[in-house]
Design a protein that fits this description.
- With about 120 residues, this protein is mostly helical.
- Helices cover about 50% and strands about 0% of the residues.
- It has helices spanning about 5-15, 20-25, 50-60, 65-90, 90-100.
- Helix 4 crosses helix 5 (about 90-100).
- The longest helix is centred in the middle third of the chain and has 23 residues, at about 65-90.
- The two termini are about 20 Å apart.
Length: about 120
C-alpha cells in the first residue's frame, strides 16, 4: 500500500463512519498510526523476520555479520510451519494443487469430520 501521511490524514477526516468518525466525535483527530492494516490473515501474517528484513531494506539499519543467513533460516522455517498448518486447514485445496503438479494424491481411508471453514484459522482475519 502506498500512502502519503497527509493524504491518509485527509481521508481519515472524511470518513463518515468507523473508527475515524468515532475519534472525530470525541474531538480527537484520527491518526494514521492507529490504523490496522490486516495482512495475510491468521496463517499468513508477517513474521518478526519479515519486519527485520523491512527495517534493513527500507532504513539500512546496522546489522551483524551473517545476519542474513540467520534471518533467512528462521524465515524459511516459519513459512514451512505456516504452510503445513494451512494444508491441515484446507487439505482438499492442497490435494488439488498437488494433482495439478502431477502428483498422485489419494483420499485417506478414514475421513473424519472437518471443522467448518469459519472455525479454520486459515480463514480468520
Amino acid at each position: 500500500m502506498h500512502a502519503h501521511r497527509d493524504e491518509m490524514a485527509y481521508l481519515l477526516c472524511l470518513a463518515e463512519q468507523g473508527k475515524p468518525k468515532q475519534k472525530l466525535r470525541s474531538r480527537r483527530l484520527p491518526r494514521l498510526s492507529e490504523m490496522h492494516l490486516p495482512v495475510g490473515g491468521h496463517r499468513m501474517r508477517p513474521s518478526l523476520e519479515d519486519v527485520l528484513l523491512f527495517l534493513y531494506r527500507e532504513f539500512r539499519v546496522n546489522v551483524e555479520p551473517n545476519w542474513r543467513e540467520v534471518v533467512d533460516g528462521h524465515l524459511r522455517e516459519y513459512r514451512r510451519v505456516q504452510l503445513r498448518a494451512a494444508v491441515r486447514d484446507a487439505p482438499e485445496e492442497a490435494a488439488d494443487v498437488l494433482r495439478g503438479l502431477g502428483y498422485e494424491v489419494a483420499l485417506p481411508r478414514l475421513v473424519g469430520p472437518r471443522s467448518p471453514a469459519e472455525e479454520t484459522k486459515l480463514y480468520w482475519p
